[in-house]
Amino acid sequence: MLFDFGQVIVSLNKQRCVDALYKVGCGAIAGYVDEHRSEDLFHEIELGGSTERFCEEARRQSASTTSDEDIIWAWNELLTGIPLEKLKLIKHLKQDLGYKTAILSNTNWMHWNKSVEDFFCVPGYGVEDCFDYVFLSCELGIVKPDPRIYQHVIETTGVQAEDILFFDDSARNCEGARRCGIHAIHDPEGNDWMNNPLLTSSISGTVACIGNFDGVHSGHRYILSRLKEVAKEKSMKPLVITFDHHPRELFDENFTPAFLTTLDEKVTLLRREVEDVLVMPFTRDFAQITAYDFMKDYLRDEMGVKVLLLGYDNRFGKRNNTEDFNTYREYGEQLGIEVLLANPVDVDGVRVSSSQVRHAVAAGRMEEASISLGRPYSITGTVIEGHHEGRRIGFPTANILPPAGKLIPPRGVYATQVRINNHLYRAMTNIGVRPTYHDNSMDTITIETNIFDFIGDIYGDIISVEFLRKVRDEQQFASPEELRQQIEKDKQTILK
Fold first, then answer.
1. DSSP secondary structure code for residue 126 in this structure
2. Alpha carbon distance 26, 467 (integer Å)
3. Any residues with CB less than 8 A from the CB of 343 and at least 6 apart, and which?
4. What b/e string do you get for 319-335 counting C-beta neighbours within 10 Å, with b at 16 or more?
5. Where does residue 197 rank: exposed (0-12), middle (13-18), buried (19+ CB within 10 A)?
6. How far apart are CA 284 and CA 378, in angstroms?
7. C-alpha–C-alpha distance, residues 421 and 147, integer Å
8. Regarding beta strands 102-105 and 237-243, do their DSSP bridges make them parallel or antiparallel, or are they unpaired?
9. Cα angle vertex 442, ends 437, 444, to 5°?
10. Cα–Cα distance measured from residue 243 to residue 198, given in angstroms and rounded to the nearest whole number
11. Which of 299, 310, 331, 397 fits 390 for a cystine, CB–CB 3.0-4.6 Å?
């Protein structure tokens, strides 16, 4: 376990440091507090430059006579302390679980000496109590993301690069570590690492489930509830593993994406059920990994999975028509992973699945889709300018631009409800090509929603349209007036 120091371990307050530098008359060097100015004087002390040289340069740039003592005090005001819970967790990793722990920091002697004196002073939580190794740029004369510093860590610790988990608040430093084969996690705020599933799984073990989870329907939520039950029974962490692409997107040239949920929607819905959700990139190379190797290299070795919960029809790994649940269970016995099977879910005699819900939505059977999803099917999009024909006949509409790859219900008029800034309004929505206006230039389907009892400018806003039921198919009328009369009837039908 490899940790950056500033922000990841020790808390920082840049504004406090800037204020202190101005207070002692050295405001000219305040810019070096911002990592975007990590050059010149700042870079010099990170490489091990002397404190005396730093103070001399601070006085020269600020044209001041400030003492070394005051400059060092102001410079150290950047550091505010180390939360004890961080040290407790790291000590637990080192002493109780047997992990090698190390600091890898771009820092200077002033900051490090202050930290040792003021922050590692709690009995039992000193540097040696919590860390096996300390790698400081000011001692090594190398700064991240220079690959030599990562190679030094690998050689000194004797740990293979792929077995190192590294947390840093700098995306640039993380990328440098990854180029050396280290598994790096970018943590800009320096606090998320304590709850990162790759770390927490190493501590207590993990119960995981895998799937595409399109729609996050009732069947999925049953699996997620079982996941939490098993995790609680075994005192482990529940983890949901999903993917950023569907396999057919990569391998079927004729496949047109039409999903129930976007990736963001899916992750949001999953996290309502289970806090830790890991989205894995699904690439052509990844698709070639066998189920056994995935269970060994990713689930067991990287994520610490001890129990794997599978849906009744779940398949994973490089395509192999002979593998099934019994095969996965055999692999699990070899690898020390308990493999469990979740029962299917039937609602009103219908076996719930993503395919079943997609078929219902594609056929306009919105009540069936709602029952299987456990909520109305929805489309979230940005309100865009339309042709304003609805406004001219007394029914202004909000036209939304749906996300790419989102499944659109068939053409017709629907009873809907619209969420705007957490408020829910009744509405009616038309999906179609506006045949009454003979607009032959329209190549795409439009989604136009008349929101009842709502007045406001929402152009550019993001709203969600929830589909309750289909009222009728889209029709062509002889005139805008006939269309207006039918829309009025549609509204009354919906309001009944």
1. S
2. 62
3. 222, 312
4. eeeebebebbbebbeeb
5. buried
6. 31
7. 47
8. unpaired
9. 125
10. 16
11. 397
418 in Cβ contact with 378 (< 8 Å): no
Structure tokens of 434? 């506006």
Token pair listed for 168: 């840093």
Helices (H), 256-363: 263-273, 291-293, 325-335, 354-362
The two tokens of residue 400 are: 């939304």
What is the structure's pLDDT at 443? 60
Determine the Cα angle at 294 with ends 289 and 295, to 5°: 155
Q: pLDDT, tens digit, for every residue of 33-89?
A: 764 444 566 778 888 889 999 999 899 989 999 999 999 999 999 999 999 989 989
Neighbours of 107 (CB within 10 A): 22
Q: Which residues of 136-165 are buried (b: 16+ CB within 10 A; e: fewer)?
A: bbbebebbbbeeebbeebbeebebebeebb
In terms of phi and psi (left: phi > 0; alpha: psi -120 to 50; beta: otherwise), the region of 418 is beta
Please give the structure tokens belonging to residue 470. Answer: 């289909």
Cβ atoms of residues 197 and 167 within 8 Å: no
- Enter the tokens of residue 366: 């919105």
* pLDDT tens-digit readout, 360-386: 999 999 999 999 999 999 999 999 988
